[in-house]
Amino acid sequence: MNRLYDWIGSQPFRSFQLRLFLYLFLIGSIPVFVALTFFYLHSSERSESEWRGLVAKKHDQVQRRLEREMRELEYMYSVWLQNDAVGQLMRASRDGRDMGESARMAIDSISATAAFQLEYRRNVSDLCFTFDRSGSFCVVGNPYDYESRTARVPANRNDFFVQEEGRNTVSWVGPIYDPVNLVIVGYMKIIVDMSRVLDDVRHDQLLSDLVLWDPATDSVLFESGRRDPATSRSPVSFLSEKNAFLRSENGVFLSQRPVAIPGQSWMSYVEVPNTDIRSLQMTLRNTVLVFFAILLAVSVISSLVFSKLFSRPLHLLRQLMKRAESGDLKAYWTYGSIREIDELGNSYNQMLNRLEETIKQVKQEESLKKEAEIEALQYQLNPHFLYNTLNTIKWVAKIHKTPQISDAVSALVRLLQASLGKKGDFISLKEEVGLIQDYMAIQSFRYGDNVAIRYDIDPLASVCLVPKMVLQPLVENALIHGLENSVKNGEISIHARLDRDMLVCEVQDNGKGMADPEAVMGMQPRGHSAKERMSGIGLSNIREKIKLYYGPDYKMHVISKPNQGTTVRLSLPIHRNEES
User: Fold this and answer.
1) What is the pTM of this model?
2) What are the distances in angstroms from CA 23 to CA 28, 37, 309, 313?
3) pLDDT tens across 289-307, in order?
4) Which residues fall in a coiled-coil region (predicted)?
5) What is the CATH number of domain 453-573?
6) In the chain, what are the helix, strand and coil shares in percent, each to the nearest 5?
7) In 3D, which of 74, 159, 69 has the Cα closest to residue 123?
8) Candidates 2.50.20, 3.40.630, 2.60.40, 3.30.450; correct CATH number of 82-197?
């Protein structure tokens, strides 16, 4: 796929002449393709309908031929049942007499008559007679050569059946009985070469394959021809379908029906190649080649003519653009050509004018940017000067052994570094709690033991990342607005836990609370309290900060009632690294 993209983007494919040729070729191919497809579908549908009827007729002929073969065998059996020599052997077997020389003469007579019949009945390969008391004999072979898979004998004088004998043969079996008292004294086998029968039927009906198979054993009995590899998914794919069907697969019609064989429930399966469809496909292929050859020639000639009309003005415009690339911003388009190319040239002229104006504006902005950078460097001196001054106070406090002042100044320095530093927008919850501890260390000089702070932090939550300075302003608001004028001892509790896929942080105080928390969300502190705020961040700013970082699904909730304290709950996603 990458090679295809590279070829499409290559220089030869980007040629206007080549693209015009492809466009004309594709546009011309669509109606040709649609017309040929419609013709093919219409013709193949009509041809397939006709062939389905033809295949049904062919299969009817196959069934009639097999049934006629069985009727001829039955007629042959009835003729032999009336033969004098067979009658002599039947009576001798009935009476239990040993005919001796007369039996041998009768057998010779039967063999001579059978040999004459076998000469003009190619499908019959042998005749065998079995008498209960006189034994068995065959005209050509040995009775033991035709041991059927099922040891069945006729049960009554109307019990005729066919059974497989192996070696591509079947035997048509009929009883030998006394016409006077109807007593069965033996049976007669007519050995038939089924492969020769199926070959004759297949050649007469122009079939590619003809199969007889037994649904009871799911096995192929006899087959003539060769199954089409396109339709035969396995050597015996049709054995899984017990019912009759007629369908077409890959230009070959398949048909299956039960066949009337005495004493059997066999199925016949035929394959007929659809020569009309294949001929139609060949004709269609040749037609497609001729049409596309003509279309190819027309597309090539048309692309050459049209490319000449468009390439000259485009070449001139390209030369002007190269002059503009080298720095000549006065290389304007002044030629008259096709309207679309003239519009392109006018756009190119406007681009040159805007480019010249942009260069002038960039020079002015560069000058202003340098002035702003100088001013920013001057402003950066102020926080560094403040850090240096606080560090000087801290060391003076240590020299004069006043550790409270040193600790307070150190805490203030850490808060300023967190507020103004460039470490990143996110810190761990553990670091955020450290900032709160520094803030409370500073406020302890004012409130002493009147305000206590408690921490309930889940160890798993402490490693999660939160926006920098997101909890400290909440503690500051709770201290200034909730507990400053409270008469009782104040207490601030900080809770953090993991709730499913959320990090829940709560800042709770037992101060005076408020009646309508949402109404005071955007209010800033007034009076002297505003001057003592470290962060300068209101609750509304914190809510907006969470919305900007995480979206509207993560929010801040304020729960408060008068004289019952205030709880601020933050619902944040669980992050353990800043990339996530």
Assistant:
1) 0.42
2) 8, 21, 17, 21
3) 787 788 788 877 777 777 6
4) 341-382
5) 3.30.565.10
6) 55, 20, 25
7) 69
8) 3.30.450
